[in-house]
Every structure is written in C-alpha cells, then in structure tokens.
Amino acid sequence: MMNRSLAAAALLISFTGSAFAQDPQSFDRVERGRYLAVLGDCAGCHTAPGGAPFAGGLALETPFGKLVAPNITPDRETGIGNLTDDEFVAALHEGRSHNGKRLYPAMPYPAYTKMTEDDVRAMRSYFKTVAPVSNAVIANQLPFPLNIRLALVFWNWLNFAPGRYQPNPQKSSEWNRGAYIVEGPAHCGTCHTPKTLLGGDKTGTPLAGATLQGWFAPNITTDNHKGVGSWSKEDLVQYLKTGANSFTLASGPMSEAITHSTSQMSDADIAAIATYLKDSGAGGGSKPTPVAAGDNAMRAGAAIYKDGCAACHKDNGGGEAQLFPKLAGSALVQSDDPTTLAHVVLSGTRAVSTVGAPTAPAMPAFDWRLTDAQVAAVLTYIRNSWGNAAAAVPASAVADQRTSLAKTP
Amino acid sequence: MARKLPRKDVVVVGLGWTGSILAYELAKQGLDVIAIERGPWRDTATDFPPGYAQDELRYGVRLDLFLRPQQETLTVRNNMKQTALPIRSFSGFLPGNGVGGAGVHWNGQTWRFLPSDFNLRSHLEQRYGADKIPADMTIQDWPVSYDELESYYDRFEKLAGISGKAGNLNGQKQAGGNPFEGWRSSEYPTPPLKQNYGSALFAEAAQKLGYSPFPRPSANISEAYTNPLGIRMGQCTYCGFCERFGCGNYAKASPQVCVLPALMRMPNFSVQTESEVTKINLDSTGKRATGVTYVDTSGEEWEQPADIVLVCAFSLFNVRLMLLSGIGKPYDPVSGKGVVGRNYAYQTTSGVSMILKDKILNSFIATGSGGMMIDEFNGDNFDHKDLGFFGGGYMGSGQTGARPITTLPVPKGTPKWGAQWKKAAAETYSSGYGISTHGSSYSYRDCYLDLDPTYKDHFGRPLMRMTFDFHDNEIKMSQFLTDRLAEIAKALDPVEMTASPRKGPWNSTIYQTTHNTGGTVMGADPETSVVNRYCQSWDVSNVFVPGGASVFPQNHGYNPTGTVGALAYWTADAIKDRYLKNPGPLV
Fold this sequence. Notes:
The complex is a heterodimer. Chain A has helices at about 1-15, 25-40, 40-45, 85-95, 110, 115-125, 150-160, 175-185, 190, 235-240, 255-260, 265-275, 295-310, 310-315, 340-345, 370-385, 395-405; strands at about 60, 65-70, 140, 210, 215, 350, 360-365. Chain A is mainly alpha-helical. In chain A, the strands form three sheets. A three-stranded antiparallel β-sheet of chain A has the order 1-2-3, with no helix packed on it. In chain A, a hairpin with a 2-residue loop joins strand 4 and strand 5. Chain A is globular, with a radius of gyration of 22 Å. The two termini of chain A are about 35 Å apart. Residues about 1-20 of chain A have low confidence and may be disordered. In chain B, strands 1, 2, 3, 11, 12, 13, 14 and 22 form an eight-stranded mixed β-sheet that branches. In chain B, strands 8-16-17-18-15-21 form a six-stranded antiparallel β-sheet, covered by helices on one side. In chain B, strands 5-4-20-19 form a four-stranded mixed β-sheet, covered by helices on one side. The mean pLDDT of chain B is about 95. Chain B starts with a strand and ends in an 8-residue tail after the last helix. In chain B, helix 6 (about 145-160) packs across helix 13. Chain B is built from 13 helices and 22 strands. By secondary structure, chain B is an alpha/beta fold. Helices cover about 20% and strands about 20% of the residues of chain B.
C-alpha cells in the first residue's frame, strides 16, 4: 500500500504547475502537499511517539534548552486552525506565526524559506485535511532570557537570510532538484551543518557535520576522509531509501528522518539528493597521521576490540553489510567529534527498520563493563586501525558523554 | 470472571517458530492476528549481546532461557504400573521459555526427514512383511508425502538461511552432499560451514570405511544472508555457544532473527507476552472454538475471542492444552481408543567418547550444527531383515562447543578432584573428543501423555503425565548404531575410547535431547490421529496445530525443526488457500 502511494506521489509531482493543480482543494494539490510534508519530515518533530499525527509534543533538546514541537493539526484552539494561509506561508518563509509571533529556529524556517511559495501553499492545503486533534503543547520551555521571543529579532538579523531557492543554470535539473530538497524542505543542514555559538549555520561549511542531542550528525560532503566521498551515488540512494547500505546503518535522530521522510520519498527525488550530495563540498580531505600502534591506548584498545567488538565488526573492521557497520574507512568513525562513537559504545543503539531493510539490528550497551578510559582506548584503536586515522579520544570526552547520557537517557 | 477483549481473526498460542511463521503468513493476508506468549519478550541484541551471551553458568548450567517448573511441569513414569511424580527441575529435556521458544536455544541442526519416513508403516510392511512389525508398535504413515512437503522444506530453509550441501538436486546425485536425502528443488541457501579438525578426522575415517560423509545442514550460517522477508543474518563466528544459548550475532536462525523484524512491523499483528493461555474456549456445540482464555502476570484473566485458534506452543504443551480444553478424545492405552496423547515418542541417542593421540582439536572452536555426518544407518537406508529392529539414525562428529564447566574430559581412572585431576583436565581438554548417533524413537501403545490424576498446577489444572520407556527395538537399534560408530572411532586410533549405547530404563534426569514428539499426531484417520493432513483438529475445525513436533506420528532419526518449519508453511498455505475461502473441515 505504501508503495502504491509512493508511486502515486511520484506521478503527481509531475503535474506541478498545471492549471487545475492550483485549486487548493484538488486532490492532486493536497497529495502534493502531503508529499512535501514527507520531504520536510514534518512528522519527525510534530508527531510524538504513539501520538496522533502532527499533534505535536515531541521535545527537541537544543543546546539552549527544551523546545517542544507544537500541534500543527487544524484544531482551532490548540493547533493551527486559526492560521490564515498567508500566516502559514510567513511561518515557513519568515519564521513568523499568528499575529507576527516569532518562531524559534528549531522550526527550520531558515531552510523552508528556500521553498517556492506554491509548494508551501500546497503543504497548507494538505495540513487542512489532517484530522484536527486537541492537544495543547507548551512549545517554549527555554530558560530566561531565551524564552523571550523578541531575542529572535536579533538572532534572525545575524543568522537568517530569507529568500527562495535560486536554480543554478550550470547544473542539471536533477542536481537542482536535489539542491532544492536538501537546502529547502528536507533541511539537511539543520542537523548536518556546523553551528555558530548562537546556533546559526556556519554558512561557509555546509553539511560538514554538527553535534546535536548527544549525537554527531556526520559530514555528508564528498570529503574522502571525514565525509561520504567513498560512497557511490547508489550507496547514498540505498542508505536514504532503506537506512542501510554496505557501509553503515542509520540510527539515532537519522532513524526518524529515514522512517518519516527519506524512505518515503520518490526514487527520483532520492536520486536527485544523491546527485547533489555527490557534488557538494570540496572533496579530497586530508588525513592526519594515525596514532602509532605501539601507543598504550592503541594496545589496550586492540585487546578490548578483540573481546568486545570483533564478533560483529570483524577483526579487520569490515563489519557485515546491512547488519554491522563497517568501521574501516568510515567517515563517522574518523570525524573530529567522537560524540556519536562514545554514545553508541556507552548506550548501544538500534538501527532503523524500513520496508527495504527491516532487520533493525542493534548494538548492545557497554557502559556497564567498560570504564571511560577503556571506551576511549577502544575508540582510539578503531579510529587508527585498518587505514583509519583520527585524533586519539580522551577519556574526558567519554566521561562527559556518560554524564550527559545519564541526564537524558 | 475473565474480561473479554475485542475479537481478533486469529489467536496464536505461543510465539516460537510455528507461531511466528503462521502469524506472519496470516497477517500478510490482512488478518488481524494476536499471539499470546507465556514467557518474556526476547530480542537478539539486547537479550543475547555477544558481550555476555557466552555465559555458561547463567545459560548452560542455570538454564536462564528455559521454562521454570513453577510455570509448568509434568509428572513422569516409565510404565503404567508406576505412580508418576512431578519433575521438580527440567534436566532430561529442556523446554524453552519466552518469545522464540525452542527456536532460541537450539543447536541449529536442520534436517529433512527421508521420503520413506513419511510412509513408514507401508514401507516396512512392503519390504519386510506386516508380521515383522511388533504388535505394540503403533507407527503409522504420515498423511502427507515427502513430495508434497518438499517445497515447504525449501521455504523454511530459505527463511532460516540454512547452510549445507545438497546431495540430491531434483534427483541428480551431488558429490559432497548426503547421498540418501530426498530430492531437493534447490541448493541450500548458504554453503556449508567450515569444518573443524575433529570433523575432518571423522570424515577421513568414515570415508576409509566406505561411508559417504557430508556436512550437517545448519542454522548457524556460514555467510551473511538476506532471507525472503528481507531480513539480514550474519556469519557464524564459531564461538561454540549455541545449544542453551541465544545468538547475538544474528547468525543462528531463530524467530527473532528470521521472522519477528518483519512481523513486528505489521500494524495488524500484536503480541501479548508473559501471559499464559489456560484454555481454548468452545461454543455450546463443542464443535467450534470461540477463542482462548489467558492469565497475565498480575493474575488477571482475559478472554480473547478469535475466529481461528492456532496451537503453536512446544509439543508437550500443545498436547496438554488440547486435553485441558476437551478437544479430541483423550487416549486410553488399555482400550487403545482415543487419540489425544497417543503416540508420544522421544529420540534415541548414543555416543562414543575418545581421547586422541597427539592431536590438538581446539574443540572450543565450534558451532551448534557443524560437523560431518553419515546417513548409511538412518531410517531404512540399510537392510533390517536380520537385525531384529527397525529404525536408525545419523551419526557423526558434532563439535558443538567445549564449554569448561560442563566439558572437561579426563582419562579413565583419573581422580575426580585435586592436583591430578587438574593436570589431567588441562592435558586432555583439547584431545578429548566425542562423536554421536542421533536415532529414531518409534511409537508404542504404552508410551503416551494424559492428565495426571493427582498433581495440579498453580491454576488448579491437572499436570500432564508422561508415560515413556525405551523399547527393545530402540535399545537394539542404539546398540547396532553405536557399534558402527565405534568402528569409525577405532579407525582414529584413540588412546582410549568408551562407547555408550542407549540403555533402558529411560531416566528423566539424564539429558539427551528436547525432541519430544507426538500426542496430537496428524493422520488420515480420525481414529488414530488428532489433526488431519492440514494440521486441523478433526473435532473443532477452527483449531489448528500447525506443525509443532506434537503432530509427528513417530519420531525419525533426525532433529525435528526442519520438519516443524515445513509443516508450519504447509498449514499456513492450507489456511490461506483453502480454509479462509471456505471455513470448515478441510478433509
């Protein structure tokens, strides 16, 4: 059934621009809006686990405090039923809601501003058809003074550049479609672009990796060392469609993006995203000198790896395609920020389950049997074996991660 | 008074291999399916992580994955003259507990029965004469043939990714496989496991004696594999912790590795764990089941109405649930009338232990179903004319793990403790070797299951009583097979060897296998079977017992799981293609 609706969606987006599609109540337009909501992963934040679709309630842990995604069903009291169509457009394009109230950029209007007005209005048509649910959400749970929305005027002045996506005439239409999705509705940079102290995007290094919610969203540029430069277009497509490929499996916050969004995108759009990503960033990427094998941490790490990791990830770090991630040559493993690595070793993690890759294998937690120094040693070993090279992980980084995981299990 | 739940299309009792296969197949048809499982939820990564799954004390000795006698036990006796007493701890056989059932803790030895096993009585009568079959031996033909089941065996093997080498592809003999096996429509999904040194030595010796050794078919798989449900399995690491253990490498087929990831995604499937089904409910006519009653951990009683009831518990508990629910006439061994509990059978295993000369076997490098086997003495693969028994078994070198608490061979005459014992244990650990036979157990008039007249469980329901002993036929069979095995062992020129053929009386405290069969047997005649050829109750047509080993009319010389899996698919197809179109008796 899911496949049928996907096919329908793929078919329908080709009608974009035809006259009858402008009727805000036409099925085609509503369906296009539904598909745009998939591209935008609206459900990822606005649907609480086990909750009604889009009724809000999922808390987002930001570096500044907790923000809870509001109810975006058409309920008049607690949802967006009172929003005019123009206010809806202003929310997505400018971060201004009902009566000009400013939105926090956890709502990715800095990305949605790239969307065409027609796409935003199609989304509006769709959200009008969602079942209204009464669910009052206290969205803003930030501490003083951040709870004062007026501060956002300043934030926007520094970090927000409104404006639609401008196609690059030098590139193919597929590339442009991919760029539009990545920069606009799919808002990939919200997680993957490094942030300034104020949480704005570092616009000079798009998609180069960033830390959020106890995870490091890896570099997804063509950097050969720290990015996904060694992935083929097909590898990227398989990952986005199923959550698993011969390199790795998705887990953590990316699980949600894959479940609600990328696994439900049309094949053409996934291919467009892959085409764009294969052409983003500088490529190349320099490799540091690996930590010497005789180093104490390396020797301890090798022993820990043999006992605790090799049964799944293999002696050569090769893993098992679509089951146990490959550690040799992995960008995430060699990234500057070991947050995700410490996270998965301490707490374990479960891969996403999709139609195309239903297994959802999991890694067990090791926090109960490895000290901070041992976790650091094994990570240092993994980051500097089988051709990998990255800075040694200090025990203090693992200790910090253990402390923060204890706060937010 | 049980609280009534909303109706479901199908209720599945027990979420092991048969329950999960049937649940998946029927949920895929769009039916609303619920499974009720007595034990806990079990998940590969979180319950069996490779970081501690290899804990011999916890799992191998203290039996963490197994049924606690407080949950359910049974009374046993060797013959009808004795008074049966309850088993206070499981040791002779070990029923599993929890999601995945026995499919979690098994070794992974996955066989097909021989074509002639399926028409056993007619085959033996034809070859040796009806008068040669002992009067009290109640063996009977299966109501389904090997040819009919072949594609279903194939489906189960593909689900589980079974490793092996075909010996008979569509009638063409294949070098390196089992020359005696029935025809196979396709090669095994994954190639055979790597053989350890001991198995290589066995194969060499067996070949010298003129036999045809082949790698044992295995659910511990040799390479990564994606099954037809899209589920990914890993490669066996030869860690040697299979039997009594769960596999955290996704390398041993189990319901949680091979079916549940796809099943749990289905919105029309749900599972209620830690809840024991106490009864299948019948309507006033007694001809139709209305659902089941179960009790959750807080003692609350619930009624789950359903249109179809699938009895998918472990074989013994299938039988007890049918007896407690009053479905089918209980078997009476005196008159020979009645069917539920009839033809209980077990398995007849034996072994030869050795200490090899100047050989280091590293027997801890092992896998539950590795090893080289021969099949010359299984079923009716050999002439029984002047042997005085029927049946047989396969034999070979199963190096399934040398876990140090339970596997420390020492030479004869070594003291049982102290410095000398320690020295001998250290010296012999890697040269001690055991090879074994796995033999049939045919059915007899006086081997059966019924409700115990004295002992009750915590719900006040009678315990089930098991009456079983080895018969002369099985004792002779075991002696014959063990002699042949000892000949091969001798060819290995051991320092010492001990052959232990199976002797009576059967002792419920000595572990052999958990392969309990029969009690709700399938057959063509309602006078001698509980379910028809589609595993459907003769008496209550919306109750099925889909392929648990309780439907085997007798036990053959192989491990049961391959046949259990094949029958599960066979029944699933019968329900999908026939029953749903026209609910009612299929035969």
